[in-house]
Amino acid sequence: MTKNEFDYKDYIRARFFPHIWCPGCGHGIVLSTLLRAVHELGLDKNEIVMTSGIGCSSRISGYVDFHSLHTIHGRALAFATGVKLSKPKLKAIVPMGDGDALAIGGNHFIHAARRNIDITAIVMNNKIYGMTGGQFSPLSGQGKKATTAPYTTIDNDFDVVELAKAAGATFVARSTVYHANEAKDVLKKGIDHKGFSVVEILTQCPTYYGRKNKEGNAAQMMEVFKTNTVKIGSKKLEKNPGLIQRGIFVQDTEKLEYCEAYDKTIETAMKGKA
């Protein structure tokens, strides 16, 4: 195989396939774009550690042929922080769903961003808890149906981008599974960035969210990502400010990364002892 050729078999644990995702789930596209991003960056598999919690999205860590940890619900970033501090040269990638990232895992999310530790957090936003039965999530938004909201939700949803920006993440981006090549390029930049990177990828759950909210099958849900999103600053926003913006919102290279700051503290402490 030449340097530019890509083969999924080089990056997956084939013995764990077929995967558990429902037909039409967008998470497979996220996996595909991630593997292509890793390939195009030229990263060795031994340079990567992937940490995940619990949920449909978290199964990715079992499917990739990288160093990986399948941990407990909502704590993936905490485990990844420990790994990164002990092995700072590794590229740490953390795929998360709605709950892992911003419900039970919300506290870890904002503090990882605040610390600016060199981890790439992939928030796979399908607006629902898929694995546990279709409950509404912090990303569902008002007026949506779920198994725990048969008369629609009344909770406001988080804006992942705005939350990540406010918490101090130094790379913040958004894309969708419809825009797979764009998502791949964004992931490449996020993984390559030195600091805490948040890449939100809008993905569909036709089994629960789509069915409950009568949004159609997987293809129809992906069509919504095409029509309801625009690139940052698009003129279409003048007529329809409710469109969701895609692209890179923050790319700060000035803020000191956490592991580097920690090394400086150790160096200062050792000089004091000497």
TrEMBL record:
Biological processes annotated in GO: cellular respiration; small molecule metabolic process
Residue stretches making up the Thiamine pyrophosphate enzyme TPP-binding domain: 54-201
InterPro entries: 2-oxoacid:Fd_oxidoreductase (IPR051457), THDP-binding (IPR029061), TPP_enzyme_TPP-bd (IPR011766)
Database matches in Pfam families: TPP_enzyme_C
Keyword Oxidoreductase belongs to the record: yes
Alphabetically ordered keywords of this record: Oxidoreductase
EC number: 1.2.7.3
GO molecular function, one term: 2-oxoglutarate synthase activity
Protein name: 2-oxoglutarate ferredoxin oxidoreductase subunit beta KorB
Designated gene of the protein: korB
